[in-house]
Amino acid sequence: MSIIAHTLLTQTAALVPALAERESEACAVRSVPEATIADFHRLGILRVMQPRRFGGHQASFDIFSRMVETLAEGCAASAWVYAVLAEHQWIIACMPDRAQIDVWGDTPLAVASSSLAPRETARRTVGGWRLSGRFPFSSGCRHSQWAIIGAKAEDAAGNTPIRYMLVPVPQIEIVDDWHVLGLRGTGSCSLDVTDVFVPEHRTVLLADLLQGTTPGSAILPDYPLLRAPRGFLVPFSLPPVMFTLARRALTAVPAALRIRISRGVNEVAASEVVQMRLGEAAAAIEAAVLIMHARRAESVQALEAGDVITAEAVARNRRDITFAADQLRRGMDLLVEVSGARSVYDTDPLQALLRDILTIGTHTVVSRQGAMVPYGRIMLGLPTDQ
Questions:
Q1: How far apart are CA 362 and CA 355, in angstroms?
Q2: Which of 65, 271, 294, 307 is packed most tightly, with the most Cβ within 10 A?
């Protein structure tokens, strides 16, 4: 492990106690505290995947993903927002040179939130596009200088391929609509964009991101991440938050049950039913973590070795992380069952963990249909997009 990687991991672990102290504040105000964002910048951990030419670390994706896991030990919302802002440095680095200079040239600490689902069509105009619409789920938008917005972009032939477009946050209205079940502290508000001009150089085709053939990959041929098909590593970006939350629950529930007396008479820990449910929960959660860690290590190693990344490998990663996420949810169901009615209280730690896991489970990156159908098509010899 390099000195930089060791330092980043050590600094991240040292933040966990402070994040844990601020977790309730993040939930209450529905945004990651400014002190946490300041800590991220002070330690330079948001620059983990930023290119070196702008002062970034240009580190391995494995280090970034492990940092996300670690931060979630303290605060799920903070880890989620960290994952979004740090991972988007990858997208920016894939854009043309002028876009990278626009973002980092004068402000090397700049970060971007996003709303990537292409809900609107950008109209072609001279030198770029005009974009309007409301774009939801922009985690960390209040802490960002830019937003990456997915849109169908008209081209000269009348086609509308999907592009990711960079828009300065001062040109956006942030809509305070983040009143939700879980991940309340992420501040994932909607973005209102009204007839904003997006120059051509501040965009990148989603198809190029999915193939690893972006402008950035030509600018920085020594940076393996930029030639990675985006779908190959995305399953190891946000989902690690979910895996850590399940591990937190697996620690908290047995600790509480060891001292619990049922109806004032029986020791809960003496019940074989309780013992069996805990064993099943541990098996489901720990097996899921093993799957994620093994696939992540294998994938990063393949990328950094220069191996050809096939469509099957991309689909397999999403398949396995989605399957592992299902195991996490099964483990959580067992922990809730064995914990009983206490978990319905807002003050019970298990409830907060469950709400966050349920919310993460709605994200497209762990969608069963989105993961299993493409892999099934590959098995049947049918065409599929990466």
A1: 11
A2: 65
Rounded distance between C-alpha atoms, residue 265 and residue 245, angstroms: 32
Total residues found in the chain within this entry: 386
Give the residue among 232, 230, 235 at the shortest CA–CA distance from 83.
235
User: In whole angstroms, what is the distance from residue 160 CA to residue 123 CA?
Assistant: 10
Q: Which of 195, 227, 192 is nearest to 305 (CA)?
A: 227
Please give the angle made by the CA atoms of 291, 294 and 299, to the nearest 5 degrees.
Answer: 120
Are the C-beta atoms of 183 and 360 separated by less than 8 Å?
yes
Q: Where are the beta strands (DSSP E) in 126-230?
A: 128-138, 146-153, 162-168, 173-175, 189-199, 203-205
Alpha helices in the chain (DSSP H): 3-29, 34-43, 61-71, 76-93, 97-104, 206-211, 215-219, 230-233, 239-257, 272-304, 311-339, 349-360, 368-379
Beta strands at 121-125 and 128-138: parallel, antiparallel or unpaired: antiparallel
pTM of this prediction exceeds 0.90: yes
Q: How far apart (Å, rounded) are the C-alpha atoms in residues 333 and 353? A: 12
Evaluate if residue 109 carries a pLDDT over 50. Answer: yes
Q: How far apart are CA 68 and CA 64, in angstroms?
A: 6
Tokens read off for 214? 């972006």
Write down all domains in the chain, each with its CATH number in brackets.
3-109 (1.10.540.10), 112-207 (2.40.110.10), 230-379 (1.20.140.10)
- CA proximity to 33, closest of 184, 180, 169, 135: 184
pLDDT, tens digit (0-9, with 9 covering 90-100), for 342-371: 889 998 999 999 999 999 999 999 999 999
| Torsion sign (Cα): 28, 36, 234, 98 | positive
What residue type is 136 in one-letter code?
P
- Token pair in block for residue 86: 């740090």
Residue 158 has pLDDT above 50, yes or no: yes
Determine the angle formed by the axes of helices 311-339 and 368-379, rounding to 10 degrees: 140
Residue that the structure tokens 């393949």 belong to: 302
Q: What is the mean pLDDT of residues 237-264?
A: 91
Phi, psi (degrees; rounded to nearest 5) at 136: -85, 175
Vertex 117, ends 161 and 101: CA angle to 5°?
Answer: 75
Q: Are strands 112-115 and 261-262 parallel, antiparallel or unpaired?
A: unpaired
